[in-house]
Each structure stands twice: as structure tokens, then as C-alpha cells.
Amino acid sequence: MKSTMIIGAVVVAALGVTAVGAAAKEGGKMRHHRGHMLNFEQLDTNADGFVTPEELAAQAQARFDAMDADKDGGLTLEELKAHAEANGKDRMVKGAERMFSRKDANGDGTLSPEEMMPSTERQAKMLGKFDTDGDGKISIAEYEAVTADRQSKRAAHKAEMFKKLDTNGDGTISQEEWDAAKEARGSKVRGADAQSN
């Protein structure tokens, strides 16, 4: 059970979502953010064919350390924003303050590695996706199955979105179709804003 919790605690940070993105996704914000997915060889540092809790913890710590510009062991709001900007994550920059205030449990103005960890529920969900045989480690077959499933779902989503935009079904999205979709989206957003006021 302990190794399961250790894997769960670091799997999000090490397997496909930056610590900032993982924390932001917890609150249901930035649902469309896609973090960098490390390949299996980068995670399996001893090349034994399995990713262990220790390897995941080391990878998560390395990612945290990369964001910790002043190397003081904590992340400030400015460091989170700078990291997001440097990596072209404009949506993360916009939501950083809200995420930061939600994650800074002790209110000290700095996020520790522990505060950046995803919730226990999210940890269990991610662990269940990768460690399908429940042995406390992730095999290359388990990793590849999850990766293939993610790619398939993304491709299906893109195809669905294209079909919605291509309203005349000619296989291309014209400027008129694009503009109509933007206008329709703007109307929905303005309607939602009016209802919330």
C-alpha cells in the first residue's frame, strides 16, 4: 500500500503534467492544458523495464527543482509564472494566481513540493490508469497502452472538432466557418457571464 501511495504521489508530476499543470488541473481549470509526456526511457533510469516509485520521485523532484529558479526549495508565484511563460503556457500564466492561492496551504507565499502534490483522489486515479496490474510499478507495456489510449482520444477529439467547424462538410474550414464558430463561442461565453451576474 505504501508503494502504491508513493507512485500515486508522483505519477502525475513525472508522467505527463508539469507540477504547475497538475495542480491547476485539480480544480477543473485549464482542462485543455497538455503537459509534456516523458518517454518511458527517461523515466526508467536504471533501464530494467519498470518505472519504480523511486524513479518517479526523482523525476518529480527534478521537475520541481527546474521551476525553483532561486533554488530555495520552494516555488513563488513569480517562479511559477516565469516557468509557464518560458514554456509558452499562456493559459497557465493566467490561472497561476488562483492555483497558487489554492495550493499554498500554510499561507507562507511559497509552495513546497508537498503542497504541489496532487490530491489523494487524483493520485489514485492516475495510478490506476498506469499500474493496471496493481504490482506497484509501471511496465513498458502498461505505459505504452496508456500513451496509445491518450493519443487515440486526442485524435478522435480533433476529428470531432474539425467536423463541427466544417459545417458544409467539404473537408476544409473556410474563413467564414471559422468566424462563425468564433462568434458562436463568444455568444455562449457572453451568455454564461450574463447568467452568473
TrEMBL record:
Any Pfam family hit: EF-hand_7
Keywords in alphabetical order: Metal-binding, Repeat
GO molecular function, one term: calcium ion binding
InterPro entries hit by this protein: EF-hand-dom_pair (IPR011992), EF_Hand_1_Ca_BS (IPR018247), EF_hand_dom (IPR002048)
Key word Repeat present: yes
Region entry Disordered, spans: 164-197
Residues annotated as domain EF-hand: 55-90, 91-126, 153-188
Domain of life: Bacteria
Record-given protein name: Transaldolase/EF-hand domain-containing protein
Organism: Shimia marina
Lineage: Bacteria, Pseudomonadati, Pseudomonadota, Alphaproteobacteria, Rhodobacterales
